[in-house]
Each structure stands twice: as structure tokens, then as C-alpha cells.
Design brief:
Belongs to the major facilitator superfamily. Proton-dependent oligopeptide transporter (POT/PTR) (TC 2.A.17) family. By secondary structure, the protein is mostly helical. It contains 18 helices and 7 strands. Strands 1-2-3 form a 3-stranded antiparallel β-sheet, with no helix packed on it.
Length: 611
């Protein structure tokens, strides 16, 4: 094993008389930062320096020109498009399915779907861990996308077979509102939740790996690597948007014309086709060997408890290594070597500098995705609140009546438009202002997205205040499922389009930021941060709704979130979200200002390290 050592300023000295206490003797020994060219891992598994592409058998690729690139990425795009199509198809249809078919109260149906969305995103950490530690990104996607398909087939069967749903006879709209329809049996709801959560956990292995696996297809040694990566994440999110648009249009149309079974079956068929395409592209993919358990390496750094000796400010040069930084110096003790430890110490007694720096990077990244939780919370609220608003509004475009469940398609259309114009309009304009060749840095894009989301939710509060007063003044106060013919639903497009713009800048910038800043052997964990933030936003929406309902409930049983939107105060909730978003934006500005980008070694650094 080749070992390069940088001595600390501490020198060896002996106490008078040649004796001392054990603790003093240890602190006076020569101390080293140690970094091995062959990084070690506990449990007997080695992990690679990180970035050499291999084929599916783990062998080096002889001719890189025959693999990877945009062609390979296209096969991966298809898998993500189908996953997002299923995700949004379930999010927009499952609340209505539980209410109209399973006869569950709207409130509990909404919370159940929010929890499903939250679990499907928050559990992405598990998928990212398995990909980085043991399976690799390809096999993680392959296993979990199959699980996703099984869950969708189960949902399709549940909606198609009468035995899985309660009796639908004598259940008109009035009976639904009064709660007089036959409720679903406990075993029927158990079956539905089981297949729903199988689908959710299937997403856990897809979401953190697909973007990273797609980015792996590009040669980081190429001079155009940064440009390719920038465009990849934009096109990647474009595929996400296309999946959402199909879910909000085609799937809704199929449901209205052919029923729930066919609608969910469409999602299952799309996932099956995408799986086939993903596996068909196997010979083209470039792979990264899994790096061993990230949690083990983190635990080794945090809990080995070596001597209380301060670390030296030393940069460790060399290929595939992370230079030492001065942040979180309390972690540096894990890489302090005493002579008595020998040249082959246990990884539970001594960590490499790269290992320590991995933990530092993971800690340093946390505030940025954490600030996007608020955006996810707003998006989750829009999925339910805006649809309830649309039920009271006129959704006609001349002689064409647009289904209410299609309304969320408009953020997708705005995203599609912004991504189409991004390089031709936004980048040239902002390049002149910022001097950044890509128009805006990743953190600047995240900040732009958060700022636009504040404008979106503030407008939503203004319009909802107007809509509510209009309903009361024109006699619709208690007819909350009756459309007001003279008030168009297309006023909602303003908040929808603004939140779509916010999503483009924030999420695309965040994904690119996390991929580039995450350690080499933890790219999937880095991508999982974004999905985890999205999941926490869904859970936060449920928690916030419960708090608001409990805090604002009056003697009549009404609250801000009353089932009758005209007697509730959705506008007050939107104002609360505006205030929280503004506070969150201030926290983001502070976090972004303090963030230190990961140091990148130059070829000069590497050549100097080899001397």
C-alpha cells in the first residue's frame, strides 16, 4: 500500500525522567494525517477511488466511445419519465379514487396520499445508500423499478375488480357529501395501502439513482463535460415534466372515458415499456463500482473516539482524493495517526483524510436541500388546495370543458416552456449580468426558484381572498361543488405558472449542485438529499394542515381548511405559507453565502502529489 503522510507541527518530546502518564505520552507522539491511494473500507470490502467507468461486469471499458453519452442517457430518461408519470398520475387521481370509490373522507384521503408521496421521496435515502454501498446504480434501478411495476399492477387490479372496492349502488354525490355511502372494509383499505406503498418504496430506488446514473454516462475528462452536465440536468427535468404532463392529461382522459382500472393500467403499461427500454440499453451504459457502505465510513469518522489532538491544516494531493479543509475540525481527529497504530491500523481506529472529508461534505450540503423543503410543501398544498379551488370555478375554454384534475398540467407546461427557452433566452441575458458562462450558478438558480415561489403563493392568497368573497356575494357560500359560471378557473394559471418556473430553477439547480458537490463514492446519496427534502415537504404539509385545523377550529366545527372551501379560509393558509417561504428564503441566502464549494484538484496538483 502506498501511503503519503503529512506531518503535523507537533514534535516528539519526552518528559523529564523518561516517564509520563499514558495520556500525556500519547499526545506527545508524532501525529500524521494519512491518506491511502487504495482507500480502505470496514467489513472487508474495498471501494474505488470513484470515477473509472466499468461495464456491467465490473471490467474497465476498453473503448469509451462505444458507450455512454447522450444515446445511453436517452434510455435512462425514459425510465424517469414513466416513474414521474406514475407518481403524478397517482398523486392527482388517488385522492379522488379514495373519495369517490373507496368512500373515504376527503381530508383522510388527502393525508393518505400526502403520506404516500412523502414516503416515496423520503425513502430515497435507502435507495441511494444501497446504490452507493453495494448494488451500484444500475442494479438498484433495475430492482426497484420492477418493484414499482408490481405495485402499479396491484393498484390496477384493486381498481378493476369489484371485490377490492365497496358497493357503489345508491351512492350519489349527495350521499358522498353526507357520508352515507358504504365505506370500504378494513381489508380492502389494507390491500390498497399495501400496493400503494410497494409503489412508493419502488420509487425509493429510482429517484436518487436515475439522475446520477444518467450523469455518469458523460466523460468528466472531456472539455465539454460541464456543458454536457448542465444540459443533461435540464433535459432530465424536461423528461420529468413530460411525464407529469401525460399524467395530468392522457391519464385523466382515460379515467373519465374508461374508468379507474384503465387509468391505473395505463401507468402500469408505461412503466413496463420504460423498464424494457432501460434493460435494452444495458450494453451502452457506463457504470461506477459501488464504494462500500457510506454509513460505515461516516460511523468510523464520528465514533472511533481517537485522541483529543487538534488537526493540522494540510491539503492532501493525489488522484481521486479530497483535499483537507479547515471546516469541522473536530472531525479531523479521526485521521490523526499515532506511531503505535502501525502502518495497517483498523479502519475503526483510523480513518483517511478523504473519508473525513466525505463526512464534512455531507454535513456541509445539508442546509441547501433543507431550504427546498418549503418549496415541496407549497407544491404539495397546491396539488390539493388548487384542485378544490378549481371545483368552484368555470373551467371552460369556449366550448371545451377542461376537467378539474387536469389543472395541475399548467405548471408542467410552464416548465416545458421555460426549459425550451432556457438556453436561447435566459442564459444569454443572465450571462451579461453575472459573467457566469452558464448564466447563473447552481445556488443562484436555487435562490431564483425560491424567490419566485414566494410570489406564486402570495398571488394564490390574493386570488383566493377574491374568489371567496365573490362566492359569498353571489350566493354560492354553501354550494362549494357548484361552479361559478362568471369566474374563470384560469386565474389559477398565474400561481401555477409561477410555481412551475420556481420548480425549474430550484430543483434543476439543486440536482446539478448535489451531483457535483457530493463525494465521488456518494453521488446517489447526494441526489437522495433532494428527494428526501421533497418527502419531508409532503410530511410537513400534512403536519401543517393538522396544526392549522386544530388551531383555527371554531365552535361550528369550521376551520381554515373546512371541507366547504367557501366557509374556510384558504387565503389565510396561503398568507401563512407566504410568510414561511419568506423566512425560508432568508435562511437560504444566509446558508448560500456561507457555503464553501468543494475544492477541485487540478492536473498540476496531481502531478505535484506524485513527486
Amino acid at each position: 500500500m502506498v501511503v503519503s503522510e503529512i506531518k503535523s507541527p507537533l514534535n516528539v518530546s519526552e518528559t523529564p525522567g523518561g516517564c509520563s502518564s499514558s495520556s500525556v505520552h500519547r499526545k506527545e507522539l508524532s501525529v500524521f494525517f494519512i491518506e491511502s491511494d487504495n482507500r480502505r473500507l470496514a467489513l472487508g470490502r474495498g471501494y474505488t477511488g470513484g470515477t473509472t467507468p466499468v461495464n456491467i461486469h465490473g471490467k474497465p471499458i476498453a473503448n469509451l466511445s462505444k458507450t455512454g453519452g447522450w444515446i445511453a442517457a436517452l434510455f435512462i430518461f425514459g425510465n424517469e419519465m414513466a416513474e414521474r408519470m406514475a407518481y403524478f398520475g397517482l398523486s392527482v387521481n388517488m385522492v379522488a379514487f379514495m373519495f369517490y370509490v373507496m368512500h373515504r373522507p376527503f381530508e383522510s384521503s388527502s393525508n393518505a396520499v400526502n403520506n404516500f408521496l412523502g414516503i416515496s421521496q423520503a425513502s430515497s435515502v435507502l435507495g441511494g445508500f444501497l446504490a452507493d454501498a453495494y448494488l451500484g446504480r444500475y442494479w438498484t434501478i433495475a430492482i426497484f423499478t420492477t418493484m414499482y411495476l408490481v405495485g402499479l399492477i396491484g393498484i390496477t387490479l384493486g381498481a378493476s375488480l369489484k371485490m377490492f372496492v365497496p358497493d357503489q349502488s345508491n351512492c350519489d354525490q349527495l350521499s358522498l357529501l353526507l357520508g352515507n355511502c358504504q365505506p370500504a372494509k378494513s381489508w380492502q383499505m389494507l390491500y390498497l395501502y399495501t400496493v400503494l406503498y410497494i409503489t412508493g418504496f419502488g420509487a425509493a430506488g429510482i429517484r436518487p439513482c436515475v439522475s446520477s446514473f444518467g450523469a455518469d454516462q458523460f466523460d468528466e475528462k472531456s472539455k465539454d463535460y460541464k456543458s454536457h452536465l448542465d444540459r443533461f440536468f435540464n433535459f432530465f427535468y424536461l423528461s420529468v415534466t413530460l411525464g407529469a404532463i401525460i399524467a395530468f392529461t392522457l391519464v385523466v382522459y382515460v379515467q373519465m372515458e374508461h374508468g379507474w382500472g384503465m387509468a391505473f393500467g395505463t401507468l402500469a403499461i408505461a412503466m413496463a415499456i420504460s423498464n424494457a427500454l432501460f434493460f435494452a440499453g444495458t450494453p451502452l451504459y457506463r457504470h461506477r463500482l459501488p464504494g462500500g457502505s457510506p454509513l460505515t465510513r461516516v460511523a468510523q469518522v464520528l465514533f472511533i473516539g481517537l485522541y483529543e489532538v487538534p488537526g493540522s491544516k494540510s491539503a492532501i494531493n493525489g488522484s481521486r482524493k479530497i483535499p483537507h479543509t479547515g471546516d469541522f475540525r473536530w472531525l479531523d481527529k479521526a485521521a490523526l495517526q499515532l506511531k503505535e497504530d502501525g502502518l495497517e491500523p483498523s479502519p475503526w481506529k483510523l480513518c483517511t483524510v478523504t473519508q473525513v472529508e466525505e463526512v464534512k461534505i455531507l454535513i456541509r450540503l445539508i442546509p441547501i436541500p433543507a431550504c427546498t423543503i418549503m418549496l415541496s410543501l407549497v407544491l404539495t398544498e397546491y396539488l390539493t388546495l388548487s384542485v378544490q379551488q378549481a371545483y368552484t370555478l368555470n373551467t371552460h375554454i369556449q366550448h371545451l370543458k377542461l376537467p378539474v384534475t387536469c389543472m395541475p398540467v399548467f405548471p408542467g407546461l410552464s416548465i416545458f416552456l421555460i426549459l425550451s427557452l432556457y438556453y436561447s433566452v435566459f442564459v444569454p441575458i443572465t450571462r451579461r449580468i453575472t459573467g457566469n458562462p452558464h448564466g447563473a450558478s447552481q445556488l443562484q438558480r436555487v435562490g431564483i426558484g425560491l424567490a419566485v415561489s414566494i410570489i406564486s403563493v402570495a398571488w394564490a392568497g390574493l386570488f383566493e381572498n377574491y374568489r371567496r368573497h365573490y362566492a359569498i356575494q353571489h350566493g354560492f357560500e354553501f354550494n362549494f361543488l357548484t361552479q361559478m359560471p362568471d369566474l374563470t378557473a384560469y386565474w389559477l394559471l398565474i400561481q401555477y405558472c409561477l410555481i412551475g418556473i420556481a420548480e425549474v430553477f430550484c430543483i434543476v439547480g439543486l440536482l446539478e449542485f448535489l451531483y457535483e458537490e457530493a463525494p465521488d463514492a456518494m453521488k446517489s446519496i447526494g441526489s437522495a438529499y433532494a428527494a428526501l427534502a421533497g418527502g419531508l415537504g409532503c410530511f410537513a404539509a400534512t403536519i401543517l394542515n393538522n396544526i392549522v385545523k386544530a388551531a383555527t377550529k371554531n365552535s361550528d366545527g369550521n376551520s381554515w381548511l373546512s371541507q366547504n372551501i367557501n366557509t374556510g379560509r384558504f387565503d389565510c393558509l396561503y398568507w401563512l405559507l407566504t410568510l414561511l417561504s419568506l423566512l425560508n428564503f432568508c435562511v437560504f441566502l444566509w446558508s448560500a453565502h456561507r457555503y464553501k464549494y468543494r475544492a477541485i484538484e487540478t492536473e498540476e496538483d496531481k502531478s505535484r502529489a506524485s513527486l
